[in-house]
Structure formats: structure tokens, C-alpha cells
């Protein structure tokens, strides 16, 4: 976990959650295994419940997924905030994963994703993708999430010279799951379920 990513997630917390510290929020961290640091200390607030999620057991992992594209361990619409940093470049079929993000988020829930647009290959166990703002925006649109902000750190920042964070040129997106009427919500669930089934049936 490099410093520029930690700072971006800190910025998300301060901008979107500073006024919600007394709310009983459930926060899910996708790709949470502690590899040289984690986001957990940023969300260590008494009213909040932080759950680390990953594909393998280890430090800072509360929920181990059996299937990266079918999160049966997590109920639909049970998560207030979903965060993920330095994980989506390692997800082979990220367009299926974003459907699961939408499924588990509550209506009105927030999602913050951080992933590199640059940097060297770093398999864990695979390294498949780099993301630009348009790519993240397209992914959110596919998952029926509304983008609140998205940007890439294109220029070097002197604060990150020591750990060479600048090389990753991270892209960060914050989006929300829209609140819909009863019929609209049902139609969204049906659409996403059908999409998920069609795309995952051959995996």
C-alpha cells in the first residue's frame, strides 16, 4: 500500500464521511489483505463496522470469498460504504465484480475505488489492467452506479518521492448507488442478476 493511495482514501473519508462518524455504517474493504499497510486505521470509528474482504485468509481479512465473482458471503444491500484500493487491476473480469459491488451496496451507498493507470507489472497473482477516468466511468455506468467524482494523478507530487508512489498515477473514483422506487429497484436487481448470470456462467 503506497502513501499516495492512503492519502487519497483519507481524502475520501474526510470529504464524504466526516459528518457521519456517529452513524452505524458498515464498511467493506475489497482486497483488504495487509500488504505493507491497509486502510483499516482510517475507518477505526466506534460507530462503524469495518470488514476486510479478500480471496485468501490473512492479516486484515474478515471475510474470505470462495468466488471472486459471486460474493455469497455478503448479503444484498447490506453495505453502506465499499472501498477498494490496488485491487481492481488484479481482477480478471472486473466488469462482473462491479455488478457484485452494486448488489451488496445499500441504495444511497457509496463506493470508492483506487487503481493504477501506470506502473510496472506486479502480479498478485495476476496483473491485468490499468484504469483511466473514462474506464472507471464506463465501469460505473455498467454497474448502474452514479459517478460523483473521478480523476487520475497525472503529475508527480513531491510528497511521494521517497516511496515512489508517483509511478502508479492512481485513478480514483467515488460513486453512489441511486435510490429508486419500488418498481425501479426491482427492475435494477433483475437486470443486474441476469447480466451476472450470463457473464459468469462459463467461468
TrEMBL record:
Q: Where is the Methyltransferase type domain?
A: 61-112
Instruction: Identify the Gene3D superfamilies for this entry.
Output: Vaccinia Virus protein VP39 (3.40.50.150)
For this UniProt entry, the molecular function terms from Gene Ontology, in alphabetical order, are: S-adenosylmethionine-dependent methyltransferase activity
Keywords from the named record: Methyltransferase, Transferase
A Pfam family of this chain: Methyltransf_11
Top-level taxon of origin = Bacteria
GO process annotations (BP): methylation
Q: What is this protein called?
A: Class I SAM-dependent methyltransferase
Task: Give the organism the record lists.
Answer: Desulfonema ishimotonii
Q: List the lineage, top down.
A: Bacteria, Pseudomonadati, Thermodesulfobacteriota, Desulfobacteria, Desulfobacterales
